[in-house]
Amino acid sequence: MVQHEPRRHEPWSENRAAALIAEHVHLEGATLPILHALQETFGYVDEGAVPLIADALNVSRAEVHGCITFYHDFRRAPAGRHQVKLCRAEACQAMGSDALHAEILAGLGIDWHETTPDGRVTVEPVYCLGLCANGPGALVDDLPVARLTVDGLQSAIKEMAS
Questions:
Q1: By percentage, how much of the chain surpasses pLDDT 90?
Q2: What are phi and psi of 107, to 5 degrees?
Q3: DSSP-assigned letter for residue 86
Q4: Burial class (CB in 10 A: 0-12, 13-18, 19+), 86
Q5: 147 vs 65, 84, 123, 154, CA distance in Å?
Q6: What is the pTM of this model?
Q7: Is 4 a residue whose pLDDT tops 60?
Q8: 52, 58, 119: which is closest to 37 by C-alpha?
Q9: CATH value of 82-161 in 3.30.2000.10, 3.30.565.10, 3.40.30.10, 3.40.140.10
Q10: What gap in Å lies between CA 69 and CA 127, rounded to an integer?
Q11: For 18, how many CA atoms within 13 A lie in the half-sphere containing its CB?
């Protein structure tokens, strides 16, 4: 497997967030570009960003919160050092992914959208990675893993950590 350095994010800063918002506020439909910029910079959209965005765009906090929660790729807390995305599409299900996912999640002691208590791994569901002929599929730190097994996932995570 190719070595891959996980992206490092800046620590949350209200001043930095305000600057990012100011860079995007002029755009048509600026909410999503702002949310993407915040997540790209910090790795998540901090709750403290909601009133900043609402004020800058002259919308309610509820509208901003609604966008963050509607789109599943926006995080409301920092992700683990390693991000695992497990495919839940039909082709992977046909290859036994549901049972495999249950075993993986139980082994990590977490559920979907959660991070292990040590901050090492976050697991997210995705719907089709294009690995249908080689399912079940996953992404570990954005690198594809085909014919996924519990041992294969553990090996991929260990390899990414080394």
A1: 79
A2: -65, -35
A3: E
A4: buried
A5: 37, 15, 17, 13
A6: 0.75
A7: no
A8: 52
A9: 3.40.30.10
A10: 18
A11: 6
